[in-house]
Amino acid sequence: MPLSKFDGPAGMRDRMRDTLLVHRNELVSLLSRYVAKGKGILQAHELVGELVNIIKEDETMQKLNDSPFVEVLESAQEAIVLPPFVGMALRPRPGVWEYVRVNVYELSVDNLSVSEYLQFKEELVDGECNGKYVLELDFEPFNASFPRPTRSSSIGNGVQFLNRHLSSIMFRNKESLEPLLDFLRTHKHDGHAMMLNERIQSISKLQSALSRAEEHLSKFPPDAPSSDFEFR
């Protein structure tokens, strides 16, 4: 299967690359253990188990346990081993999936799209194919008008999500949201901005900031004092 040119989310891929830069030998030793098991599927507990075993055998491998690669393993749902490749399905948070593939011999890391990952997985049984005669069914048109949650916090809170979705229908274009942005920017107390600072000058920046803030706040318990995060 040729190397992917898919330019998707780079979060987990970057963590693996960072680990390769700093702990190349240690990560190669671990990945080589996966490859040595031969062609097949490794479950999440098997991936973590190999890390635990290699640390027990060599204390210097503890470096891996303190590296960004641990986040990759903690989010891994499965790994596909097709030597010299190891492909992983990663779920860093609810509703968010990433797919990466490592060439253990060349030490290269690539993102895969969903279809590329499934094709890679199918090669376990069918072997490498050119993809010219693959049947694909597109069900997307059936879901075109159905609202989809884009934030992890919406999962499990369907009623709240639909309420927000219905409310947003009143603001179908960004121009209609400008008055709200102006209100939030001018809301002050004793000369200090209460809602937004001067760095947020557009609706797109507000949406991006809200997404990052929600992800950051999710790491704190509900009863955490504001002093723990007010300057972030």
UniProtKB/TrEMBL annotation:
The residue ranges of the Sucrose synthase N-terminal domain are 11-122
The answer to keyword Transferase applying to this record is yes
Could you say which EC number(s) this protein's record lists?
Answer: 2.4.1.13
What processes does the entry annotate via GO biological process terms? sucrose metabolic process
The record places domain Sucrose synthase EPBD at: 157-231
Keywords associated with the record: Glycosyltransferase, Transferase
Indicate the enzyme's highest-level EC class: transferase
Indicate yes or no for the key word RNA-binding. Answer: no
What is catalyzed by this enzyme? an NDP-alpha-D-glucose + D-fructose = a ribonucleoside 5'-diphosphate + sucrose + H(+)
A Pfam family assignment: SUS_N
Q: Name one GO molecular function term.
A: sucrose synthase activity
Family under the similarity heading: Belongs to the glycosyltransferase 1 family. Plant sucrose synthase subfamily.
In Swiss-Prot or TrEMBL terms, this protein is called: sucrose synthase
Organism this protein belongs to: Dovyalis caffra
